[in-house]
Design a protein that fits this description.
This protein has 121 residues and is mainly alpha-helical. 69% of the residues lie in helices and 0% in strands. This is Bifunctional inhibitor/plant lipid transfer protein/seed storage helical domain-containing protein.
């Protein structure tokens, strides 16, 4: 068996592996958005009505701390950012309340929670 034949036999396997990795990445992103949405929904009373105020140790702030843990790399921070921007749109006109949550809860996601934030940076 020549080198060219070995390479040509392995190309479909390599392409298949790359496709699987791409699909896994997309599924992971969808799962992460689902997790972000679920975590933010813990704060829905505050987001909708402005009370009760989130405070460290509350379920809402615990959710914000979980989001902070999720956004531990550049790629995951971008996903969390994009998901939060989507959630802000969903809660419009009360979406700006979401921007106040990290400050109330004493966390920083590494980006500004604002509808105009560029999540690709």
């Amino acid at each position: 068996m020549g080198a060219n034949q070995m390479v040509s036999e392995n190309v479909p396997k390599i392409i298949g592996l790359l496709m699987l990795l791409s699909i896994a990445s997309l599924v992971s992103a969808a799962d992460e958005c689902s997790a972000v949405t679920t975590l933010v929904s813990t704060c829905s009373t505050f987001i909708t009505y402005g009370s009760p105020d989130p405070f460290p140790g509350s379920p809402c702030c615990d959710a914000m701390m979980s989001l902070d843990l999720i956004s531990n790399s550049i790629d995951s921070r971008r996903y969390v950012c994009r998901c939060l921007m989507s959630v802000i749109t969903t809660y419009n006109p009360n979406g700006t309340a979401i921007a106040t949550l990290p400050g109330f809860c004493g966390v920083s996601f590494g980006f500004t929670v604002d509808p105009n934030t560029d999540c690709n940076l």
